[in-house]
């Protein structure tokens, strides 16, 4: 059961998040061969928490798990 957590900088509209969740779900279904009922998507993270909860643990300290590196540094 794939659960996708999108750690997204704040400020995107609900419509944008819904559209992204739909596209993520579609791709998960297509690539991993799951049904719609098996996929869930959430969005989280505040701007204040970005460096501590995203950049350091998920980018800097986990290079072996990173499939696409960002083009920014903190």
List the helices and strands and how they pair.
Blueprint: E1 3-7, H1 14-32, E2 40-44, H2 50-60
Parallel strand pairs: 1-2
Textual characterization of the structure:
The mean pLDDT is 94. The longest helix has 19 residues, at 14-32. Helix 1 links the parallel strand 1 and strand 2 (40-44). The protein is 41% helix and 14% strand. The chain starts with a strand and ends in a 14-residue tail after the last helix. With 74 residues, it is α+β, with helices and mostly antiparallel strands.
Outline:
The chain is α+β, with helices and mostly antiparallel strands and 74 residues long.
CATH superfamily: Macrophage Migration Inhibitory Factor
Q: Unreliable segments (pLDDT under 50, ≥5 consecutive)?
A: none
Number of strands: 2
- Judging from the principal axes of the Cα atoms, what is the shape? globular
**Rg estimate, integer Å:** 14 Å
* Biggest pleated-sheet summary: 2 strands, parallel
Q: What distance lies between the first and last C-alpha atoms, to the nearest angstrom?
A: 33 Å
CATH architecture: 2-Layer Sandwich
Strand and helix order:
EHEH
Q: What would CATH call the class? A: Alpha Beta
Q: Let me know the average pLDDT.
A: 94
Number of helices: 2
- Structural class comes to alpha+beta
In what order do the strands lie side by side in the largest sheet?
A: 1-2
Helix content: 40-55%
């Amino acid at each position: 059961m794939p659960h996708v957590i999108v750690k997204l900088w704040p400020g995107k509209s609900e419509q944008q998040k819904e559209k992204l969740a739909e596209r993520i779900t579609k791709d998960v279904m297509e690539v991993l061969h799951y049904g719609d009922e098996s996929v869930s998507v959430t969005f989280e993270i505040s701007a204040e928490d970005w460096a501590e909860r995203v950049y350091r643990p998920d980018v800097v300290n986990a290079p072996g798990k990173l499939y696409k590196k960002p083009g920014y540094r903190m």
